[in-house]
Amino acid sequence: MSEKLKIKLSIANRVYPLTIDASQEEGLRKAAKNIEEMIKQFEQSYSVRDKQDVLAMCALQFASQVEQKSIDKESVSEHVEEKLNALNSLLHSHLVS
């Protein structure tokens, strides 16, 4: 069983205490850092009055990145499948001949 850690992450001037598996710590800290960096970018680029708006923009940005990676992966998978089918047909035609 993995060791549990109690950590505190600060996001948008709020502290969030979490109990996590030790293996999750690095990923969560990097994610919190990325969110903080994105918050700063949005605040510098847009006149945002409310942290809620900035957090919603961050959530949309991260969610769209995840969705785009999924779409890209699906496209690559389809391309690979087409190539494998073509190779399989080519091999089959040479073996049958």
Q: How would you characterize this protein structure?
A:
The longest helix is centred in the last third of the chain and has 46 residues, at about 50-95. This protein has 2 helices and 2 strands; from the N terminus they run E-E-H-H. The radius of gyration is 22 Å and the shape is elongated. A hairpin with a 2-residue loop joins strand 1 (about 5-10) and strand 2 (about 15-20). It is α+β, with helices and mostly antiparallel strands. It comes from Mariniflexile soesokkakense. Pfam families: ZapA. This is Cell division protein ZapA. Keywords: Cell cycle, Cell division.
Question: How are the secondary structure elements laid out?
Answer:
Elements: E1 4-11, E2 14-21, H1 25-45, H2 51-96
Antiparallel strand pairs: 1-2
Helix pairs in contact: 1-2
3D shape: elongated
Please indicate the percent range of residues in DSSP E strands (runs of 2 or more).
15-25%
- Helix-and-strand structural type: alpha+beta
Residues in helices, as a percent range: 55-70%
- SSE arrangement, N to C: EEHH
- Would you count the extended β strands for me? 2
| Major sheet strand order | 1-2
* Radius of gyration over C-alpha positions, nearest whole angstrom: 22 Å
Keywords: Cell cycle, Cell division
Pfam families: ZapA
Protein name: Cell division protein ZapA
InterPro entries: Cell_div_ZapA-like, Cell_div_ZapA-like_sf
